[in-house]
Design a protein that fits this description.
Layout: E1 2-3, E2 24-29, E3 40-46, E4 55-60, E5 66-71, E6 83-89, E7 101-106, E8 112-118, E9 135-136, E10 149-157, E11 164-170, E12 180-182, E13 189-194, E14 199-201, E15 207-215, E16 222-227, E17 230-232, E18 240-243, E19 249-257, E20 261-271, E21 275-277, H1 280-284, E22 291-303, E23 310-314, E24 317-322, E25 337-348, E26 351-356, E27 373-374, H2 377-382, E28 391-399, E29 411-416, E30 419-424, H3 431-434, E31 444-453, E32 457-461, E33 483-486, E34 494-499, E35 505-510, E36 516-522, E37 526-528, E38 535-543, E39 546-554
Parallel strand pairs: 8-9, 10-12, 14-20, 21-22, 24-26, 27-28
Antiparallel strand pairs: 1-20, 2-3, 2-10, 3-6, 4-5, 4-7, 7-8, 10-11, 13-15, 15-18, 16-17, 16-19, 19-20, 22-23, 22-25, 23-24, 25-26, 28-29, 28-31, 29-30, 31-32, 33-34, 34-37, 35-36, 35-38, 38-39
Length: 555
Amino acid sequence: MKKLYFLLFTLLFSAFSFAQTTVFINELHYDNSGGDVDEGVEIAGPAGTDLTGWSIEKYNGSNGTSYGNEALSGTITDQDNGYGTLGFTFAANALQNGAPDAIALVNNSGVVVQFLSYEGSLTASGGPADGMTSEDIGVAETSGTAIGESLQLTGTGDTYEEFTWSGPSAQSSGAVNSSQSFSSMNTASITITAPSDAASFAPGTTSVDIAYTVVNAPGTATVDITVNGTTTNGITDNPFSVTTINGQSYTVTVELIDGGVLDSDQVTFSIENIAQVADIAALRAATEGEFYELTGEALITFQQSFRNQKFIEDSSGGILIDDSSGNVTTTYAIGDGITGIVGQLTSFGGMMQFAVSEDPGAASTTGNTLTPQMVSLLDLATNPENYESELVMVTGVTMENSTPNFSGGSEHGMSQSGDMFNFRSTFFDADYADQNGIVPLVATDIVGIVNERSGSLYFLTARSSADFSEDVLSTDNFNSNSFSLYPNPTNTGFVNINSTNNETMGVQVFDILGKQVKNENLINNRLNVSDLNTGIYIVKITQNNASITKKLVIK
């Protein structure tokens, strides 16, 4: 972000912050002993202020009407810290001697910048100051005032409000008054506060808001905004919205205008373009920080509420979708296919992520079969990065169970024929973590997703209790001998569930992906499973506030 122009000139009262008059009457002479001579005014303001078209309107205190005007012209030069004065001497007796009388400083747009009076106050009737009440400057000249003296502002500042009228004292028309100095502490300015310079926005961003602040501006000032060469004048919106498209860069200039450019600011920003990749392998090989569209279909292998995360996979690899901003609003199920996912390639803790920037829309396919990739612990230990974010299956692994229960974030070693790899219950919403699942005491098969933490630590994480071939859910207050489930395996289309008491049993059946496929209350102890496909299921039975789970095989 950089400033483009130095302050040229400013006017009147600020509508943006607080009243500031930066071009003003700095010296006045209207009466002296004998015949009035050298009557006139001095105008002060920022160097570069062009007074062409400005004027002094003269008002009679007896009736408040105008008795004429005096034309001003010329450009203020730098006499002190970027400020200066221009003196104007009028014809003899051009200014009335008051009690009271007034003068109005009028800019080149016909707007009254100041309405000052001497020897009292008055209300104007007609002319540019019509209806305005004058400000009495509080000092006066008399018929005894010496020739060569005037009324003058004294003090330090860069606006009228910071100075004080004094005198009469020796005239200094066209020069900084003897007890006056200028500073630039209250310069009118405009600053873009958002976006930051060189900002980059995600593809699909259709508009960017330009926010700005204005300080010490006169009330007659306006704001112009130029976007890539096209200017909109007299902006009142803050922020100002710029319509954007992918792959386009934008240069935005804001200008504070009042007869000229008082101040300006500029930023550039761009909307990222979207490079297309055909599959996840190509996405993982792409450049981090850039935006991509995955044109091929990827299947959801797991999803959780934490950061709206989803693991997706195709035949070439897997990747984690991280969506902390909640850009994905469509509801998906495990096994759904998504096509045309757009996002930014990032990483966290060494694990590659795809930060989705827009909602992909409805699933391109549903109900897809997910087949875990069969791997060994040696495969995982040797080349874990090759399997990151992929759904895999290991068989016959023994888990270290010195800590006998799973909990959110618990880690457990796994061994297989002397090879080692680590298990971690990373997915805190998983039922075995939430329910304080039991680490298997015997060898088990595990389906899970390979994930990375801290840049070099890799783990296998099961998505739910159904990913274990051994039961891992707590039996609560049920003894495993309190009921029987038969036939198991079954090919009869039903299964009998008997309990040691006759209370109603609640039965839930989950498939291997953890999806609930049945939920009913049994009274006659027979569960109809004829509508279920061949496969392995987890049956959860609840009775009298106690529950137990068992594996059911349907042939």
